[in-house]
């Protein structure tokens, strides 16, 4: 079976931090994860 999807294919980036820093602060990133997303990718899966 062949499947073709029409729509958006996006890449979601999840950044894990202790807190969101203010504009004059620095923050520490614990991890970064990438997930596929978008209307076409989510519908096909």
Description:
The protein has one domain. The chain contains one helix and two strands; from the N terminus they run ββα. It has one helix at residues 39-44; strands at residues 10-17, 29-37. The protein has a two-stranded antiparallel ribbon with strand order 1-2. The mean pLDDT is 87.
Task: Name the descriptors.
45 residues; 13% helix; elongated
Helix content: 10-25%
Main β-sheet, spatial strand arrangement: 1-2
Fraction in beta strands: 35-45%
- Structural class label: mainly beta
Distance between the termini: 14 Å
Number of domains: 1
Give me the strand/helix succession: EEH
Count of helical regions: 1
Q: Which regions have little confidence, pLDDT < 50, spanning 5+ residues? A: none
The number of strands is: 2
Mean pLDDT equals: 87
Using only C-alpha atoms, the radius of gyration works out to: 16 Å
* Oligomeric state as shown: single chain
Looking at the structure, what is the overall shape?
A: elongated
Main beta sheet:
2 strands, antiparallel
Give a concise summary.
The chain has one helix at 39-44; strands spanning 10-17, 29-37. With 45 residues, the protein is mainly beta.
Secondary structure elements and pairings:
Blueprint: E1 10-17, E2 29-37, H1 39-44
Antiparallel strand pairs: 1-2
């Amino acid at each position: 079976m062949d499947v073709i999807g029409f729509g958006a294919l996006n890449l979601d980036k999840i950044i894990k931090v202790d807190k969101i820093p203010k504009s004059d602060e620095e923050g520490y990133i614990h991890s970064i994860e990438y997930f596929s997303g978008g209307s076409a990718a989510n519908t096909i899966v």
